[in-house]
Amino acid sequence: MRVEVEAVAWSVGGRTIIDDISLSVRPGTVTGLLGPNGSGKSTLLNVVAGLRSPAAGRVLVDGRDLHRMRPRLRAQQVAYVEQHATTGLDLSVREVVELGRIPHRGRWRAGEDGAGRLAEAMRLARIDQLADRAWQTLSGGERQRTQLARALAQEPSLLLLDEPTNHLDLGHQIDFMTTVRGLGITTIAALHDLELAAAFCDRLVVLQDGGVVASGAVADVLTSELVAEVYGVEATIEAHPRTGRPHLVWHGVRVGDLVG
Ligand SMILES: Nc1ncnc2c1ncn2[C@@H]1O[C@H](COP(=O)(O)OP(=O)(O)OP(=O)(O)O)[C@@H](O)[C@H]1O
Q1: Cα angle: 45, vertex 96, 51; to 5 degrees
Q2: Residue ranges of the ABC transporter domain (predicted)?
Q3: Domains in the chain: ranges and CATH
């Protein structure tokens, strides 16, 4: 699915949170959304997910205005793993993953045909061993992987991930991003880990104060100048010894430059 974000703005209480944001995502690619705390990444993802309507601009998916689509049709195509996914419901892990099938059925019926899809989603997210556990008892990382499985069960054309690896250990971070890359689904992921972004994204979009300050191929965007400017961090960008992709070595933070 191709995504075009055209001059999108969103405000709350008279404060403009994101403004004039445009970006273009080619089908099947992974775009990393970077930027310091409060720069507007989650807000933009919420707009692209259809959870918030833009005050200006529009979001086109394969040429159709996302905010004018019927919610059910939108839910069949767009899956969103939010930063702090919670459920107050007393559900098992398998039942949480089954929620991903709701847009395709209209209503949830246990034991319906998609069993193979659910099993595959749980396998890809490495939670098959957790299927019968109560959601409420899971660790942060296990919950995050369960939410990925729910999103995959949804069989989306567009996958939106908000800091999807922040609870994962290093092995699961790499495995998670490898899985996401291998899906071939158009993906936009807000990431704080510049190393993961450099290793797994096709393109990067960097936000600062609610606007885009850089976008393009990883090697063009992830420069020491940008890291200093946006994060207040002194860093060197080197070539990864094995992959040759950009690899960040930080030296220190200029506290006075910290955003927020
Ligand atoms: N509903 C809201 N009401 C008031 N302020 C809001 C609301 N939603 C977002 N904001 C503010 O907008 C700014 C951007 O928030 P957002 O969550 O999009 O940032 P972010 O880049 O995802 O940050 P983080 O990296 O910390 O998750 C923040 O200053 C936040 O406090």
Answers
A1: 25
A2: 3-234
A3: 3-257 (3.40.50.300)
Query: What does each C-alpha distance from 189 to 40, 85, 87, 158 come to in angstroms?
Result: 13, 15, 22, 11
Per-residue model confidence as pLDDT tens digits over 88-146: 678 999 999 999 988 887 544 555 556 788 999 999 999 999 999 999 999 988 999 99
- Establish whether residue 35 lines the binding site of ligand 1, counting it when its CB lies within 6 angstroms of any ligand atom: yes
Q: Can you tell me whether residue 96 is helix, strand or coil?
A: helix
Q: How far apart are CA 258 and CA 85, in angstroms?
A: 28
- Do the Cβ atoms of 25 and 2 come closer than 8 Å? yes
Asked if residue 12 has its Cβ within 6 Å of ligand 1, the reply is yes
Does the beta carbon of 42 lie inside 6 Å of ligand 1? yes
Q: With contact defined as beta carbons under 8 Å apart, do 203 and 217 qualify?
A: yes
